[in-house]
Amino acid sequence: MRVVLLIMDSMPHSMVNATDTPNIWAQACAGGRAPEGGLSLPISVTYSNHAAFVTGLDPVETKLWGNAGWVDNKFSPTAELGPRGETLFDKCNNAGLRSVAVVGDHHIVTAIGAQSATACWPPTPEVPAGTELDAYGYAADSAVVAAASAVDLSADLVVLHLNEPDTTLHVFGPDSEEALAQIKASDQSYSELVSLLAEGWDNTVLFTISDHTQEQITEEQAINLRGAVESNGWQAVVAHDGTGAIVVGDVTPEQIASVDGVGGATRADDQTVLAWTEPGFMFGKRERYTMGNHGSPRCRTQLAIVSGGHSIVPELASQFETEQPTTLTYAPLISRLLGI
Ligand SMILES: [Zn+2]
Q1: Which has the closest alpha carbon to 211: 49, 71, 340, 83?
Q2: Residue 303 C-alpha to ligand 1 middle, in angstroms?
Q3: pTM of the prediction?
Q4: How far, in Å, from the CA of 9 to the mean position of ligand 1?
């Protein structure tokens, strides 16, 4: 069996339909999908969800809450901390299976430990010289398709990642015309990636997923939760994470939720509170700097489609249709499928 995890960063479940995204839609119709989409980790951001896609480990265990993780009594970028557990790539290596990763956001190489894959693009967590880039300096979808075309995809595990939807939705917001145009364009890139899987399709299980969605930022002034914690004299440190935030220290969710612009807060473990903004706001020190963002519980819905030519696909499709998959579903499910 070949298992393919194809991740479209920020692709909204709600924007997948027969007209705008006919290629994604065709896979959902041929296989199946979660009717309400999948569910991201509580902090709806890129790196923690990607790390957990390949480990199945809950942030309560890894402390990779969001784009920042709390390790050795300090916040560090999750993309640098790595997945903090055995990954699907490690398991493939231990079982003598071949694995491939081709990712549009080069930080994801370290976030998912893809250096351990049999083949990885980019080979280091940097953008190779001459790569076509998106507005944030990540590999454009076309560059990911080109890189995937140059790799032997006859493998047991293939992880593919398209980044452009995330960048465009950040720049213009998910409700913009530009977002719709990007989603249509990324559906075409998706179609090209699926075409690369034609050889061996009868043996393939394809999971088409996203990590989170985005929300429109309408308010000019960002919510400075870090500043509010300091000015209240609370003994805690804060990592702003778009429309979400991670607070570690001696504070209660009630204290955090009392800050102006905070929409809510919840306890994640004995020293950690997760918070989110009121709709339209993002966390930060100054004015907003993006028109779209994510992090809050409002952005937890994921694309969750399973398709492919393998005979097990109808059974998996019925699972997706009856029980909502989450970020933590994929690693144990793929381990079971590959027998690793
Ligand atoms: Zn993302």
Answers
A1: 49
A2: 12
A3: 0.98
A4: 5
